[in-house]
């Protein structure tokens, strides 16, 4: 392949091509329920028993026969006799919220609607059968479909499953994402720097996002700008479900990553109309999606958010999480690159939005200073002061 971008593909077309080539993983495992929070179910779950499995009191009070309360009111209470056993005509049984309803009772009168003196209880309100009584299976019925395959387990789901006696669940494996940093100028964090060198941070950022999205990251050692070594690094990670390569994606003499992907598999996209992030490349090797993100950290972050995280979610059957979006007016104008979908880092101050940076793909600190970003479509030349924009939170 030559030293030119294959094309400058629009974002939506690039997404469609890349995501169409991704096949979700089908590996499953059974884990204890307490270890399944945040994981994705790989099979439907039906309730194994009723919840509750007995009739229960929904209030503190007295269980009784509703028929015994006919005409009961504060001026003319009905008198019942307290019992510790089954409930018969003219008797009642003290119950607490969640207590089993004793045999013979069909209603519960609230404690505040009674007056007790010794074994005599005055009933001050009339009840109908079933009042303040929780029926068997009113929460969950045995055989009921509780959760479907593909559901992302949340804490509340865990409690519901536990309430039905389920102790183990079948879930999809977390996608293993191999992260390969490349470049002559990057060195491991902590190593003394020489002129022209920077610490390699893209792998750390990528790993954090992968883990947050539900994947399992594996960071490789830095690979120098050598075509053979890059190809070997890709092959050495053949056990991964997805590969993310940082750096070496442009068209310079030391940018060998797209060619390496093409030599081993299929290079689907090279060059996307996003700013920052134009040198992004997307491919597939042995059925595994490969994201080649630019080495400049902000451009790499944009490529990761636009292509990498959605690809990971599709791989792992992980439902996309809704973005947190706030609509506010611009305090300062936003400029964008005509013909490119521009990702502008912004911060929110005093109820308005101000840009931190629209360009500067290598200025990593701009991400830390920003609350989120505004996406400017390619057919718009920025936004003026006062325009209400959607801020997507980092």
Characterize the structure shown.
By secondary structure, the chain is an alpha+beta fold. It has four domains: 11-26 and 174-315, Molybdenum Cofactor Biosythetic Enzyme, Chain A; 35-49 and 144-172, Molybdopterin biosynthesis moea protein, domain 2; 56-134, Molybdopterin biosynthesis moea protein, domain 3 (Molybdopterin biosynthesis moeA protein, domain 3); 325-393, MoeA, C-terminal, domain IV (Beta-clip, Beta Barrel), CATH 2.40.340.10. The chain is 19% helix and 29% strand. It has seven helices and 26 strands. The protein has helices spanning 11-20, 155-163, 202-213, 227-236, 257-264, 297-315, 365-369, and strands at 28-32, 45-46, 56-57, 61-64, 78-82, 91-95, 107-110, 114-117, 120-123, 133-134, 145-147, 168-172, 176-181, 186-187, 198-199, 216-219, 242-246, 266-270, 274-275, 281-285, 288-293, 325-329, 341-349, 352-357, 372-376, 388-393. Strands 7-4-6-5-9-8 form a six-stranded mixed beta sheet, with no helix packed on it. A six-stranded mixed beta sheet has the order 16-13-17-21-20-18, with helices on both faces. The longest helix has 19 residues, at 297-315. The chain starts with 10 loop residues before the first helix and ends with a strand. The mean pLDDT is 94.
Keywords:
Molybdopterin biosynthesis moeA protein, domain 3, Molybdopterin biosynthesis moea protein, domain 2, six-stranded mixed β-sheet, single chain, 394 residues, 4 domains, alpha+beta, Molybdenum Cofactor Biosythetic Enzyme, Chain A
In brief, what are we looking at here?
With 394 residues, the protein is α+β, with helices and mostly antiparallel strands. It is 19% helix and 29% strand. The chain has a six-stranded mixed sheet, with no helix packed on it. It has a six-stranded mixed sheet with strand order 16-13-17-21-20-18, sandwiched between helices.
């Amino acid at each position: 392949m030559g030293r030119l971008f294959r094309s400058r593909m629009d974002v939506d077309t690039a997404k469609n091509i890349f995501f169409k080539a991704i096949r979700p993983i089908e590996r499953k495992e059974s884990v204890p329920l307490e270890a399944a929070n945040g994981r994705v179910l790989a099979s439907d779950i039906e309730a194994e028993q009723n919840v509750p499995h007995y009739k229960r009191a929904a209030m503190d009070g007295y269980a009784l026969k509703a028929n015994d309360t006919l005409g009961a009111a504060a001026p003319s209470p009905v008198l019942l006799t307290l019992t510790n056993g089954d409930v018969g005509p003219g008797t009642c049984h003290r119950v607490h919220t969640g207590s089993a309803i004793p045999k013979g009772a069909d209603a519960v009168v609230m404690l505040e609607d009674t007056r007790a003196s010794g074994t005599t209880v005055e009933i001050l309100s009339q009840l109908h059968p079933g009042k303040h009584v929780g029926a068997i299976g009113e929460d969950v019925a045995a055989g009921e479909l509780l959760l479907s395959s593909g559901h992302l387990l949340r804490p509340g789901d865990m409690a519901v499953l536990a309430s039905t006696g389920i102790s183990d669940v079948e879930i999809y494996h977390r996608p293993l994402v191999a992260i390969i940093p490349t470049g002559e100028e990057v060195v491991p964090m902590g190593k003394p720097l020489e002129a022209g060198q920077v610490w390699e941070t893209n792998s750390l950022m990528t790993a954090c996002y992968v883990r947050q999205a539900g994947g399992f990251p594996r960071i490789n050692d830095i690979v120098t700008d050598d075509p053979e070594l890059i190809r070997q690094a890709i092959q050495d990670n053949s056990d991964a479900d997805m590969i993310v390569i940082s750096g070496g994606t442009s068209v310079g003499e030391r940018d060998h990553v797209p060619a390496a992907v093409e030599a081993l598999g299929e290079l689907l996209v090279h060059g996307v109309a996003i700013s920052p992030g134009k040198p992004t490349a997307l491919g597939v090797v042995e059925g595994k999606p490969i994201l080649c993100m630019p080495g400049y950290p902000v451009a790499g972050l944009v490529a990761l958010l636009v292509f990498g995280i959605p690809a990971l979610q599709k791989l792992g059957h992980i439902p996309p999480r809704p973005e947190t979006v706030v609509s506010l007016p611009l305090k300062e104008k936003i400029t964008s690159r005509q013909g490119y979908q521009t990702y502008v880092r912004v911060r929110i101050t005093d109820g308005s939005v101000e840009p931190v940076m629209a360009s500067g793909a290598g200025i990593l600190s701009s991400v830390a200073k920003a609350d989120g970003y505004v996406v400017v479509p390619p057919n718009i030349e920025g936004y003026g002061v006062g325009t209400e924009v959607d801020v997507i939170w980092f």
